[in-house]
Amino acid sequence: MAMASFFTPAVAARTGECLGAGLAAFLFAHLLGIEYRSHVEEITFSKPLNVNSVLLLRVVVALLFLVAIVDGMLLVCWIAIDKFPLFASLCAWLPSALFLGMIALTATTWLRNPVAGIVVAGLYLALDLLGGMDLNPVLTLQSLAGSLGKNPPPGNWMVSKVVLLGIAGVMYRCHSRLVVRPQPQKSAARTATTCCLVTAVLLAYVWSGALMKLSYGSTREAADPRAAQFWYSQQFRVYGSVPVVYLAGPAFAKYAGYRGVLLGGTTSFAVSMPSKKSSRNTRAHAGRIMPCLSWL
């Protein structure tokens, strides 16, 4: 009874999506771990066989193992604890697992080190656990959990899963070309390139989420311009001290009520719901930022 008191459909979906993605990152990072640890990848990949076929077989085996664990856990929760959207929960974690698993596998092959692949995927998972759909409603790993929450974000969670599957497919194609290349020598330039790539992925996660909010906010302004200013301040507050609000320019940052970073690292947003008397001023501000959003 104590567990059922806080067990909700959103908790069940988040458990499946995050647990499946984390386990997939660990397993995918070790799909070629035997070759890399023994330094025999050149010998294995030079044999008259298709290494991508062997890798695909290992991916299928890893996914079957994950299906037995994650879906079995969700079935037990559905039977023993409380009811929730079972079919959606059984399927929604798989795109997230493939996406994060391919990040781990690609990073492992790039660095020839399974631990490095786990670290890179872990950084993405940690960022997603901190922000979830509030940071990025499309590239998040837990879109189903967000849609089942008390304040679901705009958009359809299935669109997020399709995008994750598409990106995972692209990464698999890129990995198929990367895996047959000989291991490069370690150098400061390669280390710097790796750090830049990891930083670019994390920044792309944050900034693409902000762009999606700006795009959705432009349609919200047309429907309810009086509440748009308050909505922007609430949506961009989640980024904390990262000044993503300046993505649309300083005029939009002022319109959203961004006051900058205060002493101690806290972020100040000072916006109140516009009254009817200030509706004209609100529309004027909205008209100023519309050119900033026209390119989205």
Summary tags:
2 domains; 296 residues; disordered C terminus; mainly alpha
Question: Can you give a write-up of this model?
Answer:
The chain has a two-stranded antiparallel ribbon. Helix 2 (9-29) packs parallel to helix 6. 32% of the residues are buried. The protein is an all-alpha fold and 296 residues long. It is globular. It contains 13 helices and 2 strands; from the N terminus they run H-H-H-H-H-H-H-H-H-H-H-H-E-E-H. Residues 262-266 and 271-296 have low confidence and may be disordered. The longest helix is centred in the C-terminal third of the chain and has 36 residues, at 188-223. Helices cover 70% and strands 2% of the residues. It has 2 domains: 2-184, no CATH class; 223-293, no CATH class.
List the helices and strands and how they pair.
Layout: H1 2-6, H2 9-29, H3 33-38, H4 41-45, H5 51-80, H6 86-111, H7 114-131, H8 143-147, H9 157-178, H10 188-223, H11 225-236, H12 250-255, E1 258-261, E2 267-269, H13 279-293
Antiparallel strand pairs: 1-2
Give the amount of beta strand, in percent.
Answer: under 5%
Question: How much helix, percentage-wise, in residues?
Answer: 55-70%
Largest pleated sheet: 2 strands, antiparallel
Give the H and E element order.
Answer: HHHHHHHHHHHHEEH
- Give the rounded overall mean pLDDT: 77
What Rg do the Cα atoms give?
22 Å
- What is the end-to-end distance? 49 Å
* Anisotropy-based shape: globular
Number of H- or I-type helical stretches: 13
Multimerization status: single chain
Strand order of the largest sheet: 1-2
Query: How many beta strands in the DSSP annotation?
Result: 2
State the domain count.
Answer: 2
Low-confidence region ranges: 262-266, 271-296
